[in-house]
Specification:
With 175 residues, the chain is α+β, with helices and mostly antiparallel strands. 45% of the residues lie in helices and 19% in strands. It has helices at residues 4-10, 18-22, 39-49, 67-71, 84-94, 98-108, 113-123, 131-140, 154-161, and strands spanning 12-17, 29-32, 58-64, 75-76, 79-80, 124-127, 165-168, 171-174. Strand 7 and strand 8 (171-174) form a beta hairpin.
């Protein structure tokens, strides 16, 4: 599993300009986000790449390994959020893998980053191989204080309790 800082190391953008594109040129360059210390450092490289234009309007003609960034609205053809490096740092410091944030976003749909970050930190329970394993863990973790001699139909219990939880790719969150 990769954390978001590792995602920055593999995330790349192809930077051209609208002026060049409108003049039938796809001139630009692939830039790896992990090669830059912050947004300003990246922006300076983009300006240097297109220094032959007085005020270049950057066009991200392609990008790779940026699915989470795209879903969070941090990257698109005409936009790269100045917050992308700060967000990467926040998630890296959280101790949760990138996969956890992607799973949570998958469960919740479109949401701003701060809400996603808080949701993961407050309602993430872990990764389990099935609903039954998750529910069994809940019960055995003293969450419900059930004596160990009680026999439980885990499949039926999981069906009932999952109304209060979300799951994506084996990651479980409280709804």
């Amino acid at each position: 599993m990769a954390n978001l800082r590792n995602c920055l190391d593999t995330a790349s953008i192809y930077v051209g300009t609208y002026a060049k594109y409108n003049n039938s040129s796809l001139y630009g360059k692939w830039l790896n986000l992990g090669d830059y210390s912050d947004y300003e450092d990246l922006l300076e490289t983009m300006r240097e790449l297109h220094k032959n234009e007085s005020d270049p309007e950057f066009m991200l003609q392609d990008y790779e390994n940026c699915e989470l960034f795209e879903k969070l609205g941090l990257i698109s053809e005409c936009h790269l959020s100045p917050d992308i490096y700060e967000i990467a740092s926040q998630i890296d410091d959280s101790g949760h893998d990138l996969e956890v944030y992607e799973a949570c976003l998958d469960c919740l749909g479109r949401i701003d980053f701060q809400s996603l970050y808080e949701y993961v930190n407050n309602f993430y329970y872990g990764k389990f191989s099935s609903d039954e394993d998750f529910v069994q863990w809940l019960y055995e973790d003293d969450t419900f204080n059930i004596p160990n001699w009680v026999v439980i139909d885990w499949e039926a219990t999981a069906r009932s309790i999952m109304y209060d939880y979300f799951e994506s790719n084996g990651h479980y969150f409280r709804s």
